[in-house]
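MOLECULE: protein
FOLLOWS: sequence and fold
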Amino acid sequence: MINNKQVSLYLQQLQAEYPQAFKRNYLFYSQIKTKGMLDELKELIPWILAAMIFVSISISLSLFIEQRFPRFDTFQASAIAVLAIMLFFMLIVPIIIKQIKHSSVHLYQQLSNSPLKIAVVILLQAVNFAFIQSFLLQAVLFFLAISFGFVRFYKENMFREHTKDTDYYNLQQIRRVCFWSYKQAVKLKVRLSLTPKKSTEYAVFKKQLAQISELHVQLIQYENELCRTYKFVDLDAYMDSLM
């Protein structure tokens, strides 16, 4: 078990040695962290945001399509608007998944199949648009798309009861450094590929790459250990804690 003081000291060391890792290095996931499966009103925040953003956009876009393209009726216009938002999720989710893959092994195992789920929803919406034309089915599919493409990334649950806001913050900071170290490794690999092997710069870049790669592995392992400390490993562990 890692205590909060140890994590804070480790973060201070990282910030002193790699200050650039904490600048302009934003992660597009886990903005809200909740305890267990349901954590009071926190569970409603991502859904309220989704309604404010995506539902309002779909309504506005639907009205725009219906006015500009009279050949589309009300359902077709709304279906196209919803389909456009689903396609947006399909474009943005792989980028977020890449961030998660290189900053949180535990979370990646849970969310790595999200693009596949969104793809299935898009196909069903296309079938609904072309053949079924059901507002009810469209509402269900839109709900699923928002869940798979926004809510599941915005909110991270299954945290233990003893976790505090400082624990959430420290975990996210470690993830930021994880992803930063991955990006630095990629940049160094590109530099190596463009640098003559017999040059002194090549030796310097190769040494830096070995150091940053080792740091990335250490951080990934540390983040995974933090997840095991702060979170339930799976749903069974959470249910056992309630017994």
The radius of gyration is 22 Å. The longest strand covers residues 155-159. The chain has one domain: 4-242.
